[in-house]
Design brief:
The chain contains ten helices and 16 strands. The protein is of the alpha+beta class. The protein has a single domain, classed as 2-Layer Sandwich (BirA Bifunctional Protein, domain 2). Strands 1-5-6-16-15-14-13-9 form an eight-stranded mixed sheet, sandwiched between helices.
């Protein structure tokens, strides 16, 4: 009988009842989050899912589709990996505080904390520093826990108090503490010195001949740093190295780092935020370099959203965050895997 239950579709009542408490918690957190943003003077927006470009980072992969125009000409479009490009156009148009509970899509991502289709909570503050959105993150995570009544986040044998003062830790400090690597010594201005990092990391991770600076950085981060973060309380990991800046502006105090941060609980990354880059020429150069590397590695590249690059010229200084809403609900509801907190599984997955 137990085997029959395990093999039955997710929508059978016996299986659905197991997930129902987590889904009720999701609804409560969603309502609380919307109330928090409304009280803080934010406007909720809904941006388009189909985009000319889904994002221009090397290891970001998106589903693609085709639309037929009036003359039946085929136009390639992508399912967005983030609402970021559209949201920043709204900032250029004059919006100052916006948020979206956005459905987003990622190819090549599936696991206990990953879904190919998921909900991203993304928000922006025009004219405000990155510290403001860090504070938002901490407040929203505590709000989610208070809404469900959970006192401790627990996941994979780790726990964290979501209401405690977070640990503030720079990436350089984390690499020194957990991997005994002087990370900043391997960065010249904004470029990574691959050989210097390879030597420093040789005893810590397996370094392949074709690994570049970012590959080695990621290996050390995943294997030695991330598992130590968010243990006992939240960790805000800030001042990411400039080669990992993505769409963040570089620090005025040290060009080797960027105004990028991530928030962790129980070793799980919950949020990724930036002091936003508004220099269109620099952003184009970063995109071009990333797409060249994507072509080399994966044999494909995504087009640039020229409308987005044009909008950057008119976008005000701003800070923004993307928070994995399903992951937050998973921790705040006591679920053990992300599938338990989504109403329906990804298409084609019946379990």
């Amino acid at each position: 009988m137990q085997a029959e239950v395990a093999d039955s579709p997710w929508w059978t009542r016996s299986r659905y009842l197991d997930r129902q408490p987590f889904l009720r918690a999701r609804g409560a957190v969603t309502k609380a989050v919307r109330g928090w943003f409304e009280a803080a003077g934010f406007t909720e927006v809904e941006t388009a899912v189909l985009q000319i470009s889904p994002g221009n980072e090397t290891h970001l992969h998106a589903p693609r589709t085709e639309l037929l125009g009036e003359g039946c000409e085929r136009r390639t479009r992508y399912l967005r990996t983030s609402p970021e490009f559209a949201a920043k156009k709204l900032l250029a148009a004059g919006e100052e505080r916006i948020f979206e509970l956005a459905r987003v899509f990622r190819d090549r991502e599936r696991g206990r904390t990953h879904l190919p289709e998921f909900t991203m909570l993304e928000w922006y503050r025009a004219g405000e520093p990155v510290q403001a959105v860090i504070s938002d993150c901490v407040a929203l995570i505590a709000l989610a826990a208070a809404t469900t009544g959970i006192k401790q986040f627990s996941f994979r044998g780790r726990s964290a108090d979501p209401a405690a003062e977070p640990q503030m830790l720079s990436v350089a400090e984390a690499f020194t503490r957990f991997a005994d690597i002087d990370l900043l010594a391997t960065i010249n201005d904004s470029a990574g010195d691959r050989d210097a990092l390879a030597r420093a990391a040789a005893a810590k991770v397996r370094v392949a001949e074709d690994d570049d600076w970012s590959d080695i950085f990621s290996k050390v981060l995943v294997e030695h740093v991330e598992p130590q973060l968010g243990d006992g309380r939240l960790t805000v990991l800030y001042d990411y190295p400039a080669p990992e800046a993505a769409l963040a502006r570089r620090s005025a105090a040290d060009p080797r780092v960027a105004e990028r941060f991530e928030v962790y609980a129980c070793g799980v990354e919950l949020a990724n935020g930036f002091g936003e880059l508004t220099d269109a020429a620099e952003q184009r150069a970063r995109f071009d370099a990333a797409m060249d590397e994507k072509q080399r590695r994966y044999g494909e590249r995504y087009p640039l959203d020229e409308d987005f690059l044009a909008a950057l010229e008119h976008m005000p200084e701003a800070s923004g965050v993307a928070l994995g809403f399903d992951r937050l609900v998973m921790l705040a509801s006591g679920a053990t895997m992300i599938d338990q907190v989504v109403w329906t599984p990804p298409a084609g997955e019946g379990s």
